[in-house]
Amino acid sequence: MVKVSVVGAKGRMGSHVVEAVRGASDMQLSLALDAGDDLSAITPGNTDVTVEFTVPSVSLSNVLALVAQGVDVVVGTTGWTDEAFDRVREALAKAPRAGQSVFIAPNFAISAVLADHFARIAAPYFESAEVIELHHPTKVDAPSGTAIHTAHAIGEARRAAGLGEMPDATQTDGGSRGQVIDGVHVHAVRLRGLNAHEEILLGNAGEQLTIRADSFDRISFMPGVLLAVRKVSSGAYPGLTVGLDRFLDL
Length: 250
Fold this sequence. Notes:
This protein is an alpha/beta fold. It is 31% helix and 26% strand. The chain has 2 domains: 2-104 and 219-247, NAD(P)-binding Rossmann-like Domain (Rossmann fold, 3-Layer(aba) Sandwich); 110-216, Dihydrodipicolinate Reductase, domain 2 (2-Layer Sandwich). The protein has helices spanning 12-23, 56-68, 82-93, 110-122, 145-160, 222-233; strands at residues 2-7, 27-33, 49-52, 72-75, 101-104, 128-135, 179-181, 184-190, 196-204, 207-215, 239-242. The radius of gyration is 19 Å and the shape is elongated.
């Protein structure tokens, strides 16, 4: 049995994680902590993997604390930066237990991970690409971690193919064209009634490919969360791993 603790257990995502862990035949829920609770209660003695689903403003400090306590961590909180990733790597290099691991997922939905993968494959074949992410208005970060990850995947694929900048003759300060990430314009929509959606547009003269992933309910993320817990608990992924695609044999 994998002993799992959840940080952010009363939140929108954390509460689903608690129920998913309770329903998994190979896991047992150890601790369910929320804002104000003492993270030091989580130890290697009572926890194999901690799932952290909180908010961007506290996620990094939570992860660093858990690493220092000798615990492996699966992170679903978004809003991570390259600088934050570097701090996690530094913490893991000093971790008290050999082979400790932290896994961070821009998105746990299998559909979103596959959309990202398909975009990476398609990107070298198209002159233009843009990303639109659409979420509920209570999401605190924009653009989403998923969209940022997708833009980087497209940018990397285009560079590897030797492609230059995309055509764009728009004469603006860039504000209405979305944030430019790795040469890709990314647009964020916040609209009541939405949950989590991403649309990737790729175009050539006379043709367009659209890749779209829709998560209508937060339960769609739970198979990915449980997969990540199982992979991390296996000990086969020491250090920092980013992206559920690393666990899907893509």
